[in-house]
């Protein structure tokens, strides 16, 4: 990075920390690693709020990994129907639960290679687990992070894996997990895809895409 780019990144991080704080938070309700894993799998193409409504009853009905491994797929499909793509999600959840029990003794692994070998687990889901459960610095490229990182000029790629690596190169390691949390909050409240509120955004002075009228 050039000196100017480094200064811009440092200013972005400073503003995000000042505006949104530096507390770690997870928007998906969970009590342990496997619950977060399943909740994250359900969150694909679905809001966290909807997932939390579903998992409130789901984790009561299926209180253990073994219960998910033994689940009737048609019944599980009905239980998670409202999260969308329920057929694939049900198949992957059961397969994932079985593999966690048979290969990992019921424990959710912490390394990305093992995580991404689980049914239905890609890099995004794996990094959610690594960041929230194991506090391993990681970048989760969801739709908000992808879109807003492009607007900020931190990447020009559409490939989530490439964006992940570019952000890891540009952002200080201690900012990785916080950046995820902060940008998701920004994307849900201010930098909304169809109606961005640039004039209200704390980053408008450093964002090359800002449309602010003085």
From TrEMBL:
Every HhH-GPD domain range: 42-189
Cofactor binding note: Binds 1 [4Fe-4S] cluster.
Pfam families cross-referenced by the UniProt entry: HHH (PF00633), HhH-GPD (PF00730)
Name of protein: Endonuclease III
Role noted for this protein: DNA repair enzyme that has both DNA N-glycosylase activity and AP-lyase activity. The DNA N-glycosylase activity releases various damaged pyrimidines from DNA by cleaving the N-glycosidic bond, leaving an AP (apurinic/apyrimidinic) site. The AP-lyase activity cleaves the phosphodiester bond 3' to the AP site by a beta-elimination, leaving a 3'-terminal unsaturated sugar and a product with a terminal 5'-phosphate.
Keywords: 4Fe-4S, DNA damage, DNA repair, DNA-binding, Endonuclease, Glycosidase, Hydrolase, Iron, Iron-sulfur, Lyase, Metal-binding, Nuclease
Residues annotated for [4Fe-4S] cluster binding in this entry: 191, 198, 201, 207
EC numbers for this chain: 4.2.99.18
Reactions catalysed, as given in the entry: 2'-deoxyribonucleotide-(2'-deoxyribose 5'-phosphate)-2'-deoxyribonucleotide-DNA = a 3'-end 2'-deoxyribonucleotide-(2,3-dehydro-2,3-deoxyribose 5'-phosphate)-DNA + a 5'-end 5'-phospho-2'-deoxyribonucleoside-DNA + H(+)
């Amino acid at each position: 990075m050039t000196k100017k780019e480094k200064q811009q990144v440092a200013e972005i991080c400073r503003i995000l920390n000042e505006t949104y704080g530096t507390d770690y938070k997870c928007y998906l309700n969970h009590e342990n690693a496997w619950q977060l894993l399943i909740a994250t799998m359900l969150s694909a193409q679905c809001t966290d709020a909807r997932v939390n409504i579903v998992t409130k009853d789901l984790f009561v009905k299926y209180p253990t990994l073994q219960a998910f491994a033994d689940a009737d797929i048609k019944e599980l499909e009905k239980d998670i129907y409202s999260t969308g793509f329920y057929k694939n999600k049900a198949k992957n959840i059961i397969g994932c639960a079985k593999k966690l029990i048979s290969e990992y003794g019921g424990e959710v692994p912490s390394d990305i290679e093992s995580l991404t070998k689980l049914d239905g687990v890609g890099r995004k889901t794996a990094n959610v687990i690594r960041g929230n459960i194991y506090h391993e610095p990681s970048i989760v490229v969801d739709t908000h992070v992808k879109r807003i990182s492009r607007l900020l000029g931190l990447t020009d790629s559409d490939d989530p894996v490439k964006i992940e690596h570019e952000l890891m190169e540009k952002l200080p390691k201690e900012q990785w997990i916080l950046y995820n949390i902060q940008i998701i909050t920004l994307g849900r409240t201010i930098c909304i895809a169809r109606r961005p509120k640039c004039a209200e955004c704390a980053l408008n002075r450093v964002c090359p895409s800002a449309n602010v009228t003085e």
